[in-house]
Amino acid sequence: MSTRVTLADAKRQLRIAAPAGDPDDADLQWQLDAAEATVLTYLQREPVGRSYVEGWTDQASTPTDVQHAILALCDTYWWDRGNTPDSQRPPIDPASELPVFVISLLRRWTAPVIV
Q1: 89 CB-near residues (< 8 Å, 6+ apart)
Q2: 53-103: per-residue pLDDT in tens?
Q3: Alpha carbons 71 and 77: distance in angstroms, whole number
Q4: Which residues contact residue 29 at a Cβ distance below 8 angstroms, ignoring those fewer than 6 apart?
């Protein structure tokens, strides 16, 4: 279960007005959990990211831009159930296979790339 972003936050992000206990809550929670796991896995691929993530144990300790990345990815997961045409999907970063806008939110929490 997501600990860095709440179900209520996800509903607000998606503009879902349904009250707590709505039948869709379980599915949305599943999408939120998947988004959080994906973001944290991406960040933990290098030691610098692992050191940050270890300190983020709850919503209060997780930076706002990381929470935003989780919510943005949850939004993508919620609306794109595999039937969205490629032309309507957000641009994907080929190295991470994540939407570019999510990577941009997380960039400051990863090791710098020197070219």
Answers
A1: 80
A2: 999 999 999 999 999 999 999 999 988 777 777 778 888 888 889 999 999
A3: 10
A4: 1, 2, 7, 10
Q: How far from chain centre, in Å, is Cα 38?
A: 7
CA dihedral 22, 26, 30, 32 (to 10 degrees): 30
Owner of token pair 């957000």: 90
Q: What is the DSSP code string of the chain? A: --SSS-HHHHHHHHT--PPTT-TTHHHHHHHHHHHHHHHHHHHTTSHHHHHHHHH--STTTS-HHHHHHHHHHHHHHHH-SS-S-GGGSPPEETTTTEEHHHHHHHGGGSPPP--
pLDDT tens for 4-44 read 999 999 999 999 999 999 999 999 999 999 999 999 999 99
- According to CATH, what is the number of the domain 7-109? 1.10.3230
Query: What's the CA gap between 18 and 32, in Å, rounded?
Result: 16
| Half-sphere exposure in the Cβ direction for 45 (13 Å, CA) | 13
